[in-house]
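From the pipeline queue, job 12 of 40. The input is one protein chain; the requested action is below.

Action: predict structure.
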Amino acid sequence: MPIFLLNKEIIFPPVHLATREGILAAGGDLSPERLLLAYQSGIFPWYSPDEPILWWSPDPRFLVFPDKIHMNKRTLRYLKNHSFKITFDYAFESVIENCSLSRKKSSGTWITEEMKEAYLKLHLLGLAHSVEVWKEGNLIGGLYGVSIGKCFFGESMFHIEPNGSKIAFFTLVLKLKELGFLFIDSQVHTQHIENWGGETICRKEYLKILKNGISFDSIQGKWCDKKEFQ
């Protein structure tokens, strides 16, 4: 399959035209309008600093269904009783920066300066959210992603201390259950997300679930007030 080249027009080709690896298109920009259209179409950006913007729609897709995640008593007790402070949308810029640094230390980051700026714009629109885990006033873990309708599109997570990202993830699951979200899109398979309950579905089935999820009104705005963190 050819990789489609995008221009200034905010449009994507049908996702079934993606390559076997899942690459659908290249180019365009990371404007809020294009990013939102991408997520609503089953597409996401993922590229290295030395590449053009690449747009992906892999088959199969890797999801987490909050209603299927049944946390054992040990996990719930850990979340409730540990000496951590957990916030939402309190330090979005710090979370995305730490995610970038974490990736850079491992295998190179795809969270470029352009990506940081783009997701900060979505955050200011009330459609990108972060979970922060604090210990003694220090940020020790977190994650961020995009929320549209009843769908959460997970982008990245990090930890500085053990279990920092795990605490953020399970806190997010509880929050999404409370809000009636249908799924967390983890995009591609990772072993730790599988260990936490992720599962693989075909793209065709994913698009059906996605269509239902984005039919709901989006909950725009911060998920908590900064006054909650004192």
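Job complete. The CA atoms of residues 148 and 218 lie 5 Å apart.
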